[in-house]
Structure formats: structure tokens, C-alpha cells
Task: structure prediction
Amino acid sequence: MKKKSEKYKFSFIVIGKNEGWKLSQCFQSILFCIKENNIPNYEIIYVDSRSTDDSLERAKNITNIKVFSITGKCNAAIARNIGGKEAQGDILFFLDGDMELQADFIPAIFDENGMIVHPFISGIHCHWYYNKEWKFFKTGLSIRKENNWFRSVTGGFFIITKKLWNAVGGMDSRLIAYEDLDLGLRITKKGIRQLVIAKVGINHHTIAYSDSSRIWKMFQKYRYIPLPVRNNLLNRFYIPLLLRTHYTALLLLVSIILFLLVSHYFILLYVIVVLIRALSKGIQLFIRMATFYVARDVVFWWSIFTFFPKKLECKYKIIE
Result:
């Protein structure tokens, strides 16, 4: 990939907090990717969100790395904004500290002339699931497709040109969750959707999303989802996604209106749909997921009308 890699400078930007062994794996995967693809012009940036483990020491052991530590409020949006601000590359590779970049993914982002095929790219995630004691039990792909496709959202792993990143102003620092959803939707307003290459781009080491500790953490962050919702109500790319992911919340509002105006029995419609949705997650998770969906839908509407957080400053320092 010599001709391809020489056209650009690559900035590999890793964010993390208390990732430990996963962070070391992340850095090693980047270094292996650089070597395998013969990338001569690159930089590695790590932005730490005030880790209390040995993450900073692990980062400082990597050769030719720029390490930054957040000194103010921490969230993923702030960390990525710091990385994007400090990056000197033409192409920004954003990774979370629990991800391993796959070397054979890199050639897929270039055409036969060595030019990047699209300004906003991602790939398939291979999730490595663990329990809360970090004992591995299974893997699973985020999606199975044979051909590339376009979407309006992104995740923690994405590749973006520095030009496009600057054009949208990076991420919204108010969001401690769903900052990636918001970024993808704001980019669609410029007429650009994310190209997802039908190839595994990263291995993602994470606690299973169905774990009780994970579900509670997701619920605590759910109050931030109304920000991208309010900002994208007129975004034609978001409407189908809104209907697909928040249909029980929308049904709750309709059921309450019909409950008040027509008949009390209409609230049963919402209850039945929630129970069916929870049942689709399995018998063992039925009660937990049903409770989660109801609580989440209530928080959704409460946040829509009452939650207006302020933007946070990016305060950080370089670690020598």
C-alpha cells in the first residue's frame, strides 16, 4: 500500500478511561496496522479522561505517541474534540481504547488511484463480549452484509477527513452520550452519509449490552438522547431512524393522549407493545428489559421538554 499511504498523513486518535489491558491491545493493533500497510506518515494520539488505573503509563510506553489528559469535565465528545484539534493528519482514525484496529481494513478505504473513497467511513464491528468480571463468553458482528452501504449515524470507530471534521466543528461537548449519533446526523445535513465498508474494521472488547450494570449505565445516559432528536426533527435521514428506535416512546405519547381524550383502555396498547419488545430479548431478560423500556420512554419525554445542558469547555494538558 505504499503509493496509497504516501498521499496522506494518518492521525490515529484513541480515547479512553481505565481501559487497562484493552488499551495496550489497541495501541499494538495500530502499530501492527502501520507496519503491515507500510504507512510512513502518521501520528498516534491518546486522550485520557482522568484514568485512575495504569492507562497513562501504558500510553507513555508507546514510541512516538502524543498523550493528553483532560483536566476539566470529561466525556467522549470532549476527548475526541481534543484529539481532532491536536491532530496534524489529513485523515483521522477515531478509536475507543477498547478497540483493536484490523490491518486488512485499511486498503479498503482507498481506490485504485490511492485516494480515500469517501470523507466519512466506518466498518463492521466484531464485538467480543465479556461479563462484568471481564470473563469472555462470545463474539458477535454488529451487522452482516456482503456489500458496502451508507448510513446516517456513526459509532466509536470512524474515519473522517480533517477537512470534514473541521467543517462540522467536531462533536457537541454537551453530550456525554449519543455524541456519535449527533455527529453523523449533522454531517448528513452537508449531504454526506457515512460509507460503511462490508468488512470487519475493529474488534471491540466490551461488557455485554444485556448485562445489568450496562443497562443501568445506558439508562443514566438516556436523558441526552433528546438533544440530537430536537436538532434533527426536520432531517429526512433521521425520521426513519427515530421511528425505528423510539417507537415505544412515540406510542407512549399517543396512548396517553388517547387515554385522556377517548378511553382509558388505549394505555394497554402501549403496555402490550413494550411487553412484546421485551420478550424479543429473551425470557431471562424479560422483566429487566420491560422495566428498562418503560423508564427510558418516560425519561425520553421528560428530557425533550426540560433538559437543556450547557456546552462544556475542553480543558486538558499534554503529558510529556
